[in-house]
Amino acid sequence: MNKESRLKATINQRLTELGERERLKELLRAKLTECGWKDQMKAHCKEVIREKGLEHVTVEDLVVEITPKGRALVPDSVKKELLQRIRAFLAQHAA
Amino acid sequence: MKMEEGSVSSLDNSKLEGMAQDILSELVEDACLGLCFEVHRAVKQGYFFLDDTDQESMRDFEIVDQPGLDVFGQVYNQWKNKECVCPNCSRSIAASRFAPHLEKCLGMGRNSSRIANRRIVTGNNTNNKSESDQEDNDDVNDNDWSYGAEKKGEHSQKSTVICLNNIFIQTFFHFYFVFVHLSSINK
């Protein structure tokens, strides 16, 4: 177990060091906007805000309402593409 | 940086796959959080519901394209020759001369330190102060607020000294050049 978590930590470090994490983040953001996820989520945000009241909305409210739905609504194609890239990175840097 | 090859061969693909899934979850979570912050800021700054404006109201904000007006419909050269009140010395200055005046008045900008140095040197010559170091002079230039107060009183005294100095220098150079000219003729 210890070796695994150490390996995981090293991988994370490599991801950040080589800039790959930033690139993956950007890629994900672009894909999510492209496929309409962002607009969907924004519409959901509007509902939440109307519910809670414009003045009283906090970051916590949004996070609690948005994150689970957001995670669920990511299209499979986007997940697939990201996973491909991550696997490629792991293959290159973990073996 | 070498990876421990021994540790990797003991991991199956499923563990690597698990790792990949974890990384994906982190990235997705990050994207969601980013969205939350973006939305929250938009709400607090008041521009979140901006794109819900109806067509009628949108026409009030259309770009203006008339001569003499800027895109907001305001007249833009109305204040060309107005006068502004300097916040430092409370004098009324013409708008086109305002920026240079403010430079000198506040003691900032490229020329003001040169002028200040010159004035301080001549001030030392006439007031018989102890030879202050160069650094002191620079410090006085940096302290805008102290310098601005001192400037006005000593202005006439120092400018007279500067004029006199200029006359001496000019006379000196004049004689020097005449001398050189004469000596070259004699050769």
TrEMBL record, chain A:
One of its GO terms (cellular component) is transcription export complex 2. One of its GO terms (molecular function) is transcription coactivator activity. The keyword Protein transport applies. It comes from the Eukaryota. GO terms for biological process: chromatin organization; mRNA export from nucleus; protein transport; transcription elongation by RNA polymerase II. Keywords: Activator, Chromatin regulator, mRNA transport, Nucleus, Protein transport, Transcription, Transcription regulation, Translocation, Transport. Its main location: nucleus. It is found in: Nucleus, Nucleoplasm. Component of the nuclear pore complex (NPC)-associated TREX-2 complex (transcription and export complex 2). Component of the SAGA transcription coactivator-HAT complex. Within the SAGA complex, participates in a subcomplex of SAGA called the DUB module (deubiquitination module). Belongs to the ENY2 family. This is Transcription and mRNA export factor ENY2. It comes from Oryzias melastigma.
UniProtKB/TrEMBL annotation, chain B:
Residues 122-151 are annotated as: Disordered. Residues 133-142 have a biased composition (Acidic residues). One of its GO terms (biological process) is regulation of transcription by RNA polymerase II. It is found in: Nucleus. InterPro entries: SAGA_su_Sgf11, SGF11. Keywords: Activator, Chromatin regulator, Membrane, Metal-binding, Nucleus, Transcription, Transcription regulation, Transmembrane, Transmembrane helix, Zinc, Zinc-finger. A zinc finger (SGF11-type) spans 84-105. It holds the Pfam family Sgf11. One of its GO terms (cellular component) is DUBm complex. The chain crosses the membrane at residues 161-182. It comes from the Eukaryota. One of its GO terms (molecular function) is transcription coactivator activity. The keyword Transcription applies. Component of some SAGA transcription coactivator-HAT complexes. Within the SAGA complex, participates to a subcomplex of SAGA called the DUB module (deubiquitination module). Component of the transcription regulatory histone acetylation (HAT) complex SAGA, a multiprotein complex that activates transcription by remodeling chromatin and mediating histone acetylation and deubiquitination. Within the SAGA complex, participates in a subcomplex that specifically deubiquitinates histone H2B. The SAGA complex is recruited to specific gene promoters by activators, where it is required for transcription. The long N-terminal helix forms part of the 'assembly lobe' of the SAGA deubiquitination module. The C-terminal SGF11-type zinc-finger domain forms part of the 'catalytic lobe' of the SAGA deubiquitination module. Belongs to the SGF11 family. This is Ataxin-7-like protein 3. The lineage of its organism: Eukaryota, Metazoa, Chordata, Craniata, Vertebrata.
